[in-house]
Amino acid sequence: MISDVILLTPLFLQLIGFTFAVMVDSYISREHKKFMMIIVVLIFSLIVRDYTGHLMDSEGTNLLARIVVAIYGYSVRPLILVLLCYVVSKERKEKFMWGLVIVNAVIYMTALVSDICFSIDENNYFRRGILGYSCHIVSGILLFYLTYLTIREFGGMKKAEAWIPIFNVFLIIASVVWDSVVDYRNYPVTFLTIATVSSNVFYYIWFHLQFVREHEQALMAEQRIQIMMSQIQPHFLYNTLSTIQALCRVDPEKAFYTTEKFGTYLRQNIDSLDQPNLISIGRELEHTKIYAEIEMIRFPKIHVEYDIRDEDFLLPALTVQPLVENAIRHGVRIRENGHVLVTTQNNNGFHEIIICDNGKGFDTQSESNPNETHIGIKNVRERIEKMCGGTVTIESRLNEGTTVTIRLPLSQQ
Fold first, then answer.
1. Nearest of 318, 319, 230, 315 to residue 271 by alpha carbon
2. Closest listed residue to residue 138, CA positions, set 159, 113, 117, 114
3. Among 181, 213, 245, where does a domain finish?
4. Could you report the per-residue pLDDT of 256-266, keeping only the tens digit for each?
5. 327 in the same domain as 295
6. Partners of 405 in the β-ladder
7. How does strand 401-409 pair with strand 391-397?
8. Which end of the chain is more exposed for a tag (fewer CB within 10 A), N or C?
9. pLDDT per residue over 82-113, tens digit each?
């Protein structure tokens, strides 16, 4: 009895931890939690079922009770796999799975009136019939279908993460083989039940990783929309169109040139919505230069220069352009000779992008820091940290100017 408690305690602790983790996990939807809680209840019932069968074997309980307990175990195991398929699949239209579960249950219920599936003799020995491996076949089909759904729904998973569902398949198969060569009646639970508990814990960890990634991708998409909208400000649209209108009277050729640049700027901002991955620094600088050219037409007293020494690295779309916009809007417009310098260089194992201006500057310790409250700089910082493992630092002095430095590790490229 003491050895039974020692073996059962870790299983129950795993189930308790699994239940608590699922309930407090904010990345898992309410529907997914519902399926997982049903799985917990079914697994708990399997542990009780195994232990009850173990006691029946040792106490010589009547055959009908042992048959009913066996039928329940063989009928529930495939159901757990179906529920896992429902957690993985977004469509949940695989009705054939329920057909397999029902057919499997009906086959094992024949044990009440026939030995075609299994029987238990007067010496308490379990004997399989012709259909005695129906649960193994059905569970095998569902297990491999679950693996297929996993690959189909989460094909973009990292290679290391793909080993978790694959390991679960081998764990289940190994437990079935082990139960077949070891007299499991000497143990309070079968090896398959132990493997089922562990596999569901592993699967939950794997699910959590996938749901976190989906959540982060959704946040990134929302950020790209916010960045695009922050860059296409109503006042910028209005002022640029007003500039084009004025140029139409005095310099039609320049008005045509500005209109072309403005159209390219708008198109590239919209295209950034379809850029979930990193882009080349060259492409980002191209967009930055278009924006800067429009601003220099509007404000002839400002000048934007580029010192490009490092052109072989990637970064998130709309990274440099928002910083140059900040430098122009919040800094150099007030100067008689406003100046912004964009530099890229390879320095001490980092790709560095430096945006330096001679604007009015600001107090970096102030809570009303305009660069920190501007949605562009906040999103740039977050995406640089999450997508590249880089950093964004700001140095500024009142009436002297501001320097923003982006540092991207070479190892992340």
1. 318
2. 117
3. 213
4. 888 988 888 77
5. yes
6. 354, 393
7. antiparallel
8. N
9. 888 888 776 666 678 889 999 999 999 999 98
Start-to-end Cα distance in the chain = 58
119 and 152 in a single domain? The answer is yes
Question: For the whole prediction, is pTM greater than 0.70?
Answer: no
Give the pLDDT confidence score for residue 372 in this predicted structure: 45
CB-based contact 342:355 (threshold 8 Å): yes
CA distance linking residue 156 with residue 162, whole number of Å: 10
Same domain, 32 and 131: yes
180 and 322 share a domain?
Answer: no
Whether 226 is covered by a domain: the verdict is no
Q: Write down the H helix ranges in 182-334.
A: 191-231, 234-250, 252-271, 281-298, 320-330
**C-alpha pair distances (Å), 406 with each of 290, 383, 393:** 21, 11, 7
Of residues 126, 113, 114, the one with CA closest to residue 70 = 126
- Residue 278 phi, psi (nearest 5): -75, 155
d(C-alpha 358, C-alpha 353), whole Å: 17
